[in-house]
């Protein structure tokens, strides 16, 4: 079973505009890679990929962007770059060696696919003017892993503490079998060490129970016994039958996304008010069928719940981890711990082989 406190950590984040920041980011990446046992040739590939990501932001987005270093299971190191530039009108053409719009050799994007174990690029060209023109820019995930399998297939995790402190009141527990994915998404009340301590023992609730309602009932007992308080959602996706069972109590939220329909749909799944370990009614439950390409997104209240698929066209077609990083970055509230999980109805790309 994975716990986001150990399995999903932001190791570094720096803007790309200044050369000093790019040098510091490279040094932080190489130190982390050495600490997690990546061999020297792979560390060199990471450094080159980091340089390409930062350079592309400077060339094509006037430096308006940043690069993050993430730790994921494996061990796996992810480079996630995001900018608010003009976007890429023809991504397939931009990936061809020799193509450039900035009078350079044009090897940056194409080289990322060769340098990394897995690479995926999402880009939306700028659309018109006005407050509702939606997100535009480019987001890139470049993954380096020492394991044949890193994160479970079809899963994306994002977890970031308030002010990037060591303690995080949000926690995700996740377990995947051959035909299902189960997870528990907990938001301990408040922030800091006490909020983090509230969720620490709750892995046993997910391990002992299958039905999401029973998982939350077990959480309620554990929290009450320890004098802690939290809100939470528990979910089960059955991949073979493409079914979702989801239960929740309190101010967490979830969305069901179906991008395979003629008109992409995002359905919000709300939960009954209350606090586990204190006063609450029966957990709200959702039992739904899932389309083949559907995604389930669960999030703490540190992630804004009001957003539109129209602001991120075609995003659900991408790897759940890229989706998690981009939504977490764009929708995160600066005054709270932030976390979200993206679960695919039918696991596809495992994020371990190069491609886009």
Automatic annotation (TrEMBL):
Q: Name one Pfam family in it.
A: HATPase_c_2
Cleavable signal peptide: none
Tell me the domain of life: Bacteria
Against InterPro entries, the record matches this protein to: HATPase_C_sf, HATPase_dom, PPM-type-like_dom_sf, Ptase_RsbX
Q: Where is the Histidine kinase/HSP90-like ATPase domain?
A: 24-123
Q: What is this protein called?
A: Histidine kinase/HSP90-like ATPase domain-containing protein
User: Source organism lineage?
Assistant: Bacteria, Pseudomonadati, Pseudomonadota, Gammaproteobacteria, Chromatiales
């Amino acid at each position: 079973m994975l716990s986001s406190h150990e399995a999903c950590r932001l190791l570094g984040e720096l803007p790309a505009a200044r050369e000093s920041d790019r040098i510091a980011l490279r040094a932080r990446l190489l130190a982390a890679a050495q600490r997690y046992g990546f061999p020297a040739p792979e560390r060199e590939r990471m450094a080159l990929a980091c340089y390409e990501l930062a350079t592309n932001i400077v060339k094509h987005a006037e430096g308006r962007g940043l690069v993050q270093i993430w730790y994921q299971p494996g061990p796996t190191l992810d480079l996630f770059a995001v900018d608010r530039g003009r976007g890429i009108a023809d991504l397939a053409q931009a990936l061809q060696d020799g193509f450039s719009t900035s009078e350079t050799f044009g090897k940056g994007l194409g080289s990322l696919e060769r340098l990394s174990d897995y690479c995926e690029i999402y880009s939306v060209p700028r659309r018109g003017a006005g407050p509702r023109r939606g997100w535009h820019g480019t987001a890139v995930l470049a993954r380096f892993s020492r394991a044949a399998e890193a994160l479970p297939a079809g899963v994306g995790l994002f977890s970031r503490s308030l002010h990037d402190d060591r303690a995080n009141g949000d926690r995700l527990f996740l377990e995947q079998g051959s035909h299902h994915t189960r997870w528990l998404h907990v938001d301990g009340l408040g922030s800091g060490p006490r909020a983090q301590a509230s969720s620490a023992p709750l892995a046993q609730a997910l391990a002992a129970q299958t039905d999401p309602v029973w998982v939350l009932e077990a959480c309620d007992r554990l929290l009450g016994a320890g004098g802690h308080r939290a809100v939470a959602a528990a979910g089960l996706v059955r991949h073979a039958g493409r079914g979702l069972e989801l239960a929740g109590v309190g101010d967490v939220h979830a969305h069901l996304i179906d991008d395979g329909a003629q008109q992409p749909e995002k359905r919000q799944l709300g939960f009954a008010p209350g606090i586990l370990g204190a006063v609450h009614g029966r957990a709200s439950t959702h039992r739904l069928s899932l389309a083949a390409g559907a995604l389930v997104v669960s999030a703490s209240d540190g992630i804004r719940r009001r957003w539109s698929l129209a602001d991120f066209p075609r995003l659900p077609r991408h790897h759940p981890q890229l989706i998690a990083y981009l939504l977490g970055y764009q929708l995160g509230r600066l005054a709270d711990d932030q976390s979200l999980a993206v679960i695919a109805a039918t696991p596809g790309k495992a994020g371990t082989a190069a491609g886009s």
